[in-house]
Description:
Blueprint lengths: L2 H13 L2 H8 L3 H15 L4 E4 L2 E4 L1 H25 L8 E5 L2 H17 L5 E5 L3 H9 L5 E4 L8 E16 H6 L10 E5 L4 H12 L3 E6 L2 H9 L5 E4 H9 L3 E3 L6 E10 L6 H11 L6 H15 L1
Parallel strand pairs: 3-4, 3-5, 7-8
Antiparallel strand pairs: 1-2, 5-11, 6-9, 6-10, 6-11
Helix pairs in contact: 1-2, 1-3, 1-4, 2-3, 5-11, 11-12
Pfam family, one: HTH_1
Family: Belongs to the LysR transcriptional regulatory family.
Protein name: LysR family transcriptional regulator
Amino acid sequence: MDTRLLKTFLLVAQLQNITQAAEKLNFSQPTITAQIQNLEEIFGVLLFERQGKKLIITEAGNELYKYAEHMLAIYNEAQMALASYRKKSAALTLGVSTHIINYLLPPILKKYQSRVPDGSVCVRLFMSTKETLNGLLENQFYIGLVHDKISHEQFEQFKITTEEVIWAGHHDLLAKHKSSNCISDYPFINYTTDTVFRSKFNNLFKEVGCNSTIEYSDTQAVKQAVLNGLGISILPFSLIKEEIADGTLVQITNTPPLFLDIYVLFKRNAVFSPSIYKFLEILSELPTADSKLKAFIDSKKFKKSN
C-alpha cells in the first residue's frame, strides 16, 4: 500500500476538511478526494461522512486511524533500521527551485566531491518552489533548495546564504543615457510572472517605473539580453561579477538594495544517508548559514549513535 494514502487519511481526519488538507500537502482537492476514495475501496468501508461543510470520521475510520498511525511508525522505524545499510557513496539528488541557485552550487558541490570522492550528484531543476515541495513530498529527492520561506508542518527549513541582486546594464547603453541612475530612463528586461524575481520584486519594479520591453523566464536569457544592450535588469551578482569586473556591464547605483535568501528544505522525519549528512554539513559551514542547521545535524547524529 502507498503510505501517502495513510498520511493523507490521517491529516484529513485531524483537520476534518479536505480543502485544508490539500493546502497543507500542496495537492489539489480532487487529488485528496481520490486518495480517500482509493483507501475506502481498499478496505471496503466508508471512512468519512459529510455533514454540511464538515467531514465526520466514521467508526470504521476511527479504527483505521489507530492502525494507520501504527503502520506509519513501523514504516519509519524500518527506514531508520535500513539506513545503516546504504552505501556511503549513494547518489545525492537535489531539487532546486530556480536557475539562480544553480549558479551558487558549483563551489558547494566541489567541496562535496572532495569529501565523498566516489559519490555522484543529480540536480533537478524546477520552475517553482511549489514543484520542489511536491517532489520532496513524493520522495523524488530528499533535499530541496528554495528561495521562499515555507510554513509547513511537514518540513524543516534553514537559511544557508543570501544572494545579492544588482541593477546592471551594458556599458554602451548606460553611456547613451549619460549614465542616468533613473531606472525609468532605460528599457527594462523583465521576468515572466511565474519566476522568483517577478514575484519577489514586482511591486518594486512598478515603484521605480520600470519600462518593460522584453520578458524572459530564464535568468541566463535575461543576462544575454542585457549583454546585447537590449535593456537593463536585475541580476544575481554571482552571475555577472566577471562582466562587472571587466567593465562590460555596469552596476546602476542609487537604487534599492536587493537580496534573495536561499534555504535548504527537507521533510521533518526524513531518514538520511551518510552522503546527505555530508552535504548538509557543508551547507552548515557556509558563513551566513543558520546556526540551527548545525545543531539539527548534530542532534540527528546523536540519536543515530544511540
